[in-house]
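This section describes the prediction task in plain terms. A model, or a person checking by hand, is given the sequence of a single protein chain and must write out its three-dimensional structure as a string of C-alpha coordinates. No templates, partner chains or ligands are provided. The sample shown here is typical of the held-out split.
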Amino acid sequence: MSKQPRDDGNDPIPVLGIKQGGGYRVPFDGTANTSPQISASVRVVTLHSNVDCFIETGDSGVSANTTSGHFLPASVPFDISLGAETAASNNPRFISVVSTSAEGVLHVSERN
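The expected answer:
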Protein backbone atom coordinates (compact mmCIF):
# COMPACT_ATOMS: atom_id res chain seq x y z
CA MET A 1 0.00 0.00 0.00
CA SER A 2 1.24 3.46 -0.89
CA LYS A 3 2.62 5.66 1.88
CA GLN A 4 1.95 8.79 -0.20
CA PRO A 5 -0.35 11.48 1.17
CA ARG A 6 -3.98 11.03 0.07
CA ASP A 7 -6.63 13.41 -1.19
CA ASP A 8 -10.30 13.61 -0.12
CA GLY A 9 -11.11 10.67 -2.43
CA ASN A 10 -8.40 8.58 -0.71
CA ASP A 11 -6.31 8.61 -3.91
CA PRO A 12 -2.51 8.94 -3.56
CA ILE A 13 -1.09 12.41 -4.24
CA PRO A 14 2.20 12.26 -6.16
CA VAL A 15 5.04 13.59 -4.04
CA LEU A 16 7.45 14.28 -6.91
CA GLY A 17 6.91 17.31 -9.11
CA ILE A 18 7.30 17.35 -12.86
CA LYS A 19 10.50 18.78 -14.29
CA GLN A 20 10.13 21.92 -16.41
CA GLY A 21 11.09 21.04 -19.98
CA GLY A 22 11.20 17.34 -19.08
CA GLY A 23 8.20 16.07 -21.02
CA TYR A 24 8.61 13.98 -24.16
CA ARG A 25 6.24 12.60 -26.77
CA VAL A 26 7.56 9.40 -28.39
CA PRO A 27 5.50 8.12 -31.36
CA PHE A 28 5.84 4.39 -32.06
CA ASP A 29 4.41 1.45 -33.99
CA GLY A 30 5.64 -2.07 -34.82
CA THR A 31 9.17 -0.66 -35.01
CA ALA A 32 10.82 0.38 -31.75
CA ASN A 33 11.38 4.09 -31.17
CA THR A 34 13.57 5.64 -28.49
CA SER A 35 12.97 8.71 -26.35
CA PRO A 36 15.27 11.71 -26.22
CA GLN A 37 18.00 11.37 -23.58
CA ILE A 38 16.64 11.53 -20.02
CA SER A 39 18.36 14.16 -17.85
CA ALA A 40 21.17 12.70 -15.72
CA SER A 41 19.69 14.19 -12.52
CA VAL A 42 16.30 12.49 -13.03
CA ARG A 43 15.72 9.24 -11.13
CA VAL A 44 11.98 8.76 -11.75
CA VAL A 45 9.83 9.13 -14.87
CA THR A 46 6.10 8.74 -15.39
CA LEU A 47 5.07 6.83 -18.51
CA HIS A 48 1.66 6.93 -20.18
CA SER A 49 0.72 5.39 -23.51
CA ASN A 50 -2.49 5.58 -25.53
CA VAL A 51 -2.12 1.95 -26.73
CA ASP A 52 -0.72 -1.25 -25.20
CA CYS A 53 3.05 -1.34 -25.63
CA PHE A 54 6.33 -2.82 -24.47
CA ILE A 55 9.11 -0.71 -22.95
CA GLU A 56 12.75 -1.01 -21.97
CA THR A 57 15.13 1.43 -20.29
CA GLY A 58 18.85 1.66 -20.82
CA ASP A 59 21.69 3.38 -22.65
CA SER A 60 21.73 4.59 -26.24
CA GLY A 61 21.57 1.00 -27.55
CA VAL A 62 18.31 0.16 -25.77
CA SER A 63 15.60 -1.36 -27.95
CA ALA A 64 12.22 -2.75 -26.93
CA ASN A 65 10.89 -5.88 -28.54
CA THR A 66 7.86 -8.10 -28.10
CA THR A 67 9.70 -10.99 -26.48
CA SER A 68 11.58 -9.31 -23.64
CA GLY A 69 9.99 -5.87 -23.22
CA HIS A 70 8.03 -4.87 -20.13
CA PHE A 71 4.30 -4.57 -20.83
CA LEU A 72 2.65 -1.17 -20.30
CA PRO A 73 -1.13 -1.25 -20.75
CA ALA A 74 -2.88 1.61 -22.51
CA SER A 75 -4.06 4.60 -20.47
CA VAL A 76 -2.32 3.54 -17.24
CA PRO A 77 0.17 6.11 -15.89
CA PHE A 78 3.18 4.27 -14.50
CA ASP A 79 6.10 5.64 -12.46
CA ILE A 80 9.45 3.90 -12.87
CA SER A 81 12.85 4.39 -11.30
CA LEU A 82 15.83 4.85 -13.58
CA GLY A 83 18.28 4.03 -10.80
CA ALA A 84 20.37 6.07 -8.40
CA GLU A 85 21.54 9.53 -9.33
CA THR A 86 25.30 9.80 -9.57
CA ALA A 87 27.03 13.08 -10.34
CA ALA A 88 29.93 11.29 -12.07
CA SER A 89 27.69 9.21 -14.30
CA ASN A 90 27.93 10.07 -17.97
CA ASN A 91 25.81 7.13 -19.05
CA PRO A 92 22.93 8.43 -21.18
CA ARG A 93 19.53 6.95 -20.32
CA PHE A 94 16.68 6.37 -22.73
CA ILE A 95 13.31 4.63 -22.92
CA SER A 96 12.51 2.47 -25.92
CA VAL A 97 8.93 1.56 -26.85
CA VAL A 98 7.21 -0.70 -29.39
CA SER A 99 3.68 -1.95 -30.07
CA THR A 100 2.47 -5.15 -31.66
CA SER A 101 -1.04 -3.93 -32.40
CA ALA A 102 -1.25 -0.25 -33.36
CA GLU A 103 0.46 3.09 -33.73
CA GLY A 104 0.67 4.99 -30.48
CA VAL A 105 2.32 7.70 -28.46
CA LEU A 106 4.31 7.22 -25.26
CA HIS A 107 4.34 10.28 -23.02
CA VAL A 108 7.39 10.52 -20.76
CA SER A 109 7.45 12.98 -17.83
CA GLU A 110 10.69 13.52 -15.93
CA ARG A 111 10.02 13.86 -12.19
CA ASN A 112 12.00 15.72 -9.57
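For orientation: Residues 18-111 form a domain with the Jelly Rolls fold (CATH 2.60.120).
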